[in-house]
Each structure stands twice: as C-alpha cells, then as structure tokens.
C-alpha cells in the first residue's frame, strides 16, 4: 500500500487508535480526527510520524467539506476513509427524548454520510479508494436500552450496501466491520457496571472471550488492501462468533 493517505475518525482511542496505528505502521499517512486536542495530539505522538492529528467536531456538518478540501489540498489524494467515530447512550426506551435520539443519529449517521460524500468527490478525481464503516453487534440483534445506537448502526449497514452499489462504478469499495465485544476502556466500564449483561456477552460468544482492538484494525486493514479488491458491500462481524452464538 504505497503512498496512501487515510482518514480515521475517532482515531485517538480504542478501535480507531488501533486502526490508525495499523495504517501508520504500514506506511500509510493517516489523519486522526478527534474532538479533544490533547488526547488526539498525544495519540498521534504515540503512533508515530505517519499520524497527523486533526481536531474537528464531526457534528459540525457544514464545516466537513472545508476540512476534507484542506486535506486534499495538502496531499493531493485521499485513498482510505474509516468511519469509526460514534457515541452511545444506555437508557430505558420510554425515557429517551427526541433530542437524545437525534443527537445519537447526528453523530453516528449524519456525519458519516456527510464526510463520506465529500471524500467520495475526491476519490473520484484520483481513480478510486476504499471506505470502511464501523457498525456494532447492536445492528446484528436486539439489545436492551440502546435504541438510538441500534437504529444508527443498523442504518450504517444499510448505507454501506447502498454506497457500494452507487460507488463501484468509480472504483470505490465500501464495506463495514461489525465489532463484537472488544477490550476497551469504554466496554470495560459498561460491562463491569452491569454483571448480568457481562455474563450474557460471554455465554453467547463461542470463542469465550473478548476481542482486542487490534482484531478490528486487522479486519479494517484487510478491507482496504489489494487482497480485498473484489470485496464491496459486505458487513463482516469480527466478534468471536457472538452474533451467531446460542
């Protein structure tokens, strides 16, 4: 993957960090988008010279075209986009307000569409590229207390397929990774505070363990590589069998 330029949203921690590191370790110049300056700059310092911190709030949809144009002006190409940034909210269904529901969709869905649209315009100019969206087990089966998150991630999977059909003519592949339960600070906090949910996770995961952020990074890297040149419109669960577990 010579002379490639990637964008990873939400790349300053967790799955995004592991993905950005995988890219950078393989010589891909990677723009790491994060909202928090200190965390994003520190993450890029840890990852190495190929990591470029970009402080940006993706909920500011009107500013996304300018941000993508700035990257394109500097690099002359954008080859890979990983839509990883997202937020969650655990709350009883009847207590979720319209504003809360909209907020989740704004970050997890609207911003993914907006940044993808702008990146595609640039990929068309340079002959193609690869887009990988990040979904969730919440789109594979019903989960309690995360209705807005589930709605957003289910929409991401449908949008992935629609994008793949629309963009194949431009040599742009669009795929989706659906992570299972991965060892991150956010997941640990959520499961440790809810023992019954934690037991449910392990009981229905055939491999009997949680995955690592690097497992997701490896899958994303594959989807963006020449080895996956005939793969588009797929949703790949990377979950130790959780989505099919009994």
Task: Estimate the global geometry from the Cα principal axes.
Answer: globular
Strand order within the widest beta sheet: 3-2-1-4-5-6-7
Counted beta strands:
7
User: Portion of residues in helices?
Assistant: 40-55%
CATH architecture call? 3-Layer(aba) Sandwich
In CATH's first tier, which class applies?
Alpha Beta
* Integer count of domains: 1
**Spatial gap, N to C terminus:** 39 Å
Order of helices and strands: EHEHEHEHEHEHHHE
Mean pLDDT: 96
Rg over CA atoms, rounded to whole Å, is 17 Å
CATH superfamily: NAD(P)-binding Rossmann-like Domain
If you consult CATH, what is the topology?
Rossmann fold
Largest sheet: 7 strands, parallel
Low-pLDDT regions: none
Keywords: Oxidoreductase
Protein name: Glucose 1-dehydrogenase
Enzyme class: oxidoreductase
Family: Belongs to the short-chain dehydrogenases/reductases (SDR) family.
Task: Provide key terms for this protein.
246 residues, alpha/beta, 8 helices, globular
């Amino acid at each position: 993957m010579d002379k490639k330029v990637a964008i990873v949203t939400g790349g300053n921690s967790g799955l995004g960090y592991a993905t950005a590191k995988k890219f950078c370790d393989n010589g891909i110049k990677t723009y790491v988008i994060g909202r928090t300056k200190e965390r994003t700059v520190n993450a890029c310092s840890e990852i190495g010279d190929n990591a470029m911190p970009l402080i940006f709030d993706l909920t500011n949809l009107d500013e996304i075209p300018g941000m993508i144009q700035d990257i394109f002006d500097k690099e002359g190409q954008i080859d890979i986009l990983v839509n990883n940034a997202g937020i969650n909210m655990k709350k009883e269904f009847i207590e979720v307000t319209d504003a809360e529901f909209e907020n989740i969709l704004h970050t997890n869905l609207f911003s993914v569409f907006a940044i993808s649209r702008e990146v595609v315009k640039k990929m068309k100019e340079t002959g193609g590229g690869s887009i990988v969206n990040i979904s969730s087990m919440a789109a594979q089966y019903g989960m309690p207390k995360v209705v807005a998150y589930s709605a957003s991630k289910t929409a991401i999977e449908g949008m992935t397929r629609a994008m793949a059909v629309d963009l194949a003519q431009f040599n742009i592949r669009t795929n989706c990774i659906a992570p299972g339960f991965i060892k991150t600070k956010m997941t640990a906090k959520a499961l440790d505070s809810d023992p019954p949910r934690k037991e449910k996770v392990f009981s229905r995961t055939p491999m009997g363990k949680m995955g690592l952020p690097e497992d997701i990074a490896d899958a994303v890297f594959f989807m963006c590589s020449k080895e996956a040149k005939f793969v588009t419109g797929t949703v790949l669960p990377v979950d130790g069998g959780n989505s099919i577990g009994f």
